[in-house]
Structure formats: structure tokens, C-alpha cells
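Anyone up for a design puzzle?
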């Protein structure tokens, strides 16, 4: 393919092989959460109040704001008698309790796979175990999970140093759960360390890291070693997106960078790049990936090759109140 330079002369576009990871982008939990906001707006009219970003993506948030969603940090910002939606990351038990006390009309968009982790925490506590949560401090999902049990019932584990420093009251009565959006490899290392120190520790019936996180990391591993550069479309506060960058680098990519959208591409980074990988975090819509490809095509002769590791067909139902 040829382009024309500013003198009108024919200029050859450089070739770029683009390895497109699949699966990528929206997962079933994100699609469900966004659908809940859309349905609530359609059924009840604007405004609908959403506690925290429904998912970690500004494009999604701004589109829903344009439809009449109002994003708030705390329930006290929601007027009496209003409709409030809890984000996909989950909330501490105190939040729905406060919503009930204020008689707010609330909908819970917590991802069912996060709710599964909440149920595991409850099950372990009922069995008399102290719960260790592998995750990142300050992440909304972690705050929501810790808030399922009374203060002190869950200890957060972020690193190997945390594992080594543990001095549990009863080493024989321990259990672990994990944030759903972690690095599969990092988490397996931490779990192995916990099992070495505490051989009787109880774990999940099934791995807590969600299918979408696992699949997106597997897809990146498949293309990383072939890529001079990997671009991950996602938000800096999106745990699963940040993990994709780390996984790409560990799997052999020469460079890997997180971008929010096509406008954030640093074209200097592409100097000398012949093969590029592209994926998106579970809260990034496919339109942003397509925008990146379109932007690349303005400067390169792009050959797109999709590399798929698995086909996803998971879907989650919306709350019954919105299903009719």
C-alpha cells in the first residue's frame, strides 16, 4: 500500500504485523454491569446513581454519563428515594445495609464471580477459619471482599514478604481466597508459599481468579515472545489491564505499554517495530481496540493476525427486577 508525502511523491508505508490477542476486552461480568445501568436508565429514567465507576474504563463511564448516570463516591451523595447501583467490583456489607436503612432503590451489579469469593469468605468464617485474601490494597474489589466479614477476620496478603511475616493465632485454622483479577503466575507462587508454611490451609473449591483474567493472560503469553511491542488497551486503575502488561513482559515481549485509547499511542515507541501485539483489559470496549488498529493503518501497511486461545461463551443474567 502506498501513501503520498507532502510533496505529492509516492511514499511506501512501512509494514507492520499486528498480532491481535483473543479473547480480549469485555468479560461477562463487565457486560452485565453495564447492561444493568442501561436497563435501569431505560426503566426508571435519569438520573441513576452509580457508586464508584461501574467498571474501570473512562470511555464506558463517560458514555453512561451521557445517558444520565451519575457516578458518586459515597451513598450519602445519592438523594433520598433515588436509584443506586453498586459497581461490578463489589461493596462491603455496610453499603447495602445503609441503602436499606435509607430506603434507597438499589441494584447490585457485583460480578457473580466476585460474589462467589464473598460466599467463600463467609463459608470459611462459618467453619472457624481465619481468612487470608491475596490481592492489592485499596482496590475496590479487595475493599468489598474485606467488608464481607467483621473487622480483623481477613488478613490481606500482597507479597511473599507478607506470607513470611504471617503469625496466625491458629495456623491449623486458615483459609485463602484471592482477588479475581490477579496475575495467575504471581498468585500461584503466593499460594504455593502459603501451602508450604501452612500445609492444612483451605483454599477455594475452584480457582478464584476469573476465567476472563486467565484467558486474557493466556492469549498474551501466546503472542508476547513474537512481539517487539505489546499495547494493552485499558485503564491504569484496572487491575486486570495492568496485569496484562506485566504478563506480556514476563512472557518475552521486548516492550509492553498500557494505553487508554488510540490518542495515547506514543509513535516514537513504534520506531523499528515490525511485529506488534494488541489486547485489551476486561473492562475496555472493542471500539477502543478498533480505534487503535485504525490509527495504526494511517501510518503502516498493517497485516492483522488474530491469535485465539479459547472461545468465550459465558453470560450472566441481570437482576430479576430489570429482567421483565
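Challenge accepted. My sequence:
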Amino acid at each position: 500500500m502506498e501513501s503520498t508525502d507532502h510533496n505529492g511523491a509516492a511514499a511506501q508505508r512501512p509494514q507492520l504485523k499486528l498480532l491481535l490477542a483473543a479473547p480480549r476486552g469485555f468479560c461477562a461480568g463487565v457486560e452485565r454491569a453495564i447492561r444493568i445501568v442501561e436497563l435501569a436508565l431505560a426503566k426508571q429514567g435519569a438520573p441513576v446513581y452509580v457508586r464508584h465507576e461501574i467498571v474501570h474504563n473512562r470511555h464506558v463511564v463517560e458514555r453512561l454519563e451521557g445517558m444520565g448516570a451519575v457516578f458518586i463516591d459515597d451513598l450519602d451523595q445519592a438523594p433520598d428515594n433515588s436509584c443506586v447501583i453498586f459497581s461490578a467490583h463489589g461493596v462491603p456489607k455496610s453499603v447495602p445495609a445503609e441503602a436499606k436503612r435509607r430506603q434507597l432503590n438499589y441494584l447490585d451489579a457485583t460480578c457473580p464471580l466476585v460474589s462467589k469469593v464473598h460466599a467463600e469468605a463467609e463459608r470459611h468464617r462459618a467453619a472457624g477459619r481465619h481468612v487470608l485474601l491475596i490481592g492489592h490494597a485499596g482496590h475496590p474489589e479487595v475493599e468489598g471482599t474485606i467488608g464481607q466479614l467483621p473487622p480483623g477476620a481477613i488478613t490481606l496478603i500482597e507479597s511473599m514478604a507478607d506470607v513470611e511475616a504471617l503469625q496466625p493465632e491458629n495456623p491449623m485454622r486458615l483459609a485463602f481466597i484471592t482477588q479475581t483479577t490477579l496475575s495467575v503466575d504471581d498468585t500461584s507462587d503466593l499460594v504455593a508459599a502459603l501451602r508450604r508454611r501452612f500445609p492444612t490451609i483451605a483454599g477455594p473449591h475452584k480457582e478464584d481468579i476469573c476465567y476472563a483474567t486467565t484467558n486474557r493472560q493466556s492469549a498474551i503469553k501466546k503472542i508476547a515472545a513474537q512481539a517487539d511491542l505489546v499495547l494493552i488497551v485499558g485503564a491504569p486503575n484496572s487491575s486486570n489491564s495492568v496485569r496484562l502488561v506485566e504478563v506480556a513482559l514476563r512472557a518475552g515481549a521486548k516492550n509492553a505499554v498500557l494505553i487508554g485509547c488510540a490518542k495515547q499511542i506514543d509513535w516514537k515507541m513504534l520506531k523499528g517495530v515490525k511485529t506488534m501485539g494488541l489486547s485489551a483489559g476486561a473492562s475496555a470496549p472493542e471500539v477502543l481496540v478498533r480505534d487503535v488498529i485504525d490509527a495504526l493503518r494511517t501510518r503502516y501497511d498493517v497485516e492483522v493476525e488474530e491469535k485465539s486461545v479459547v472461545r468465550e461463551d459465558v453470560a450472566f443474567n441481570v437482576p430479576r427486577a430489570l429482567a421483565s
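A detail worth pointing out: The chain is about 35% helix and 20% strand.
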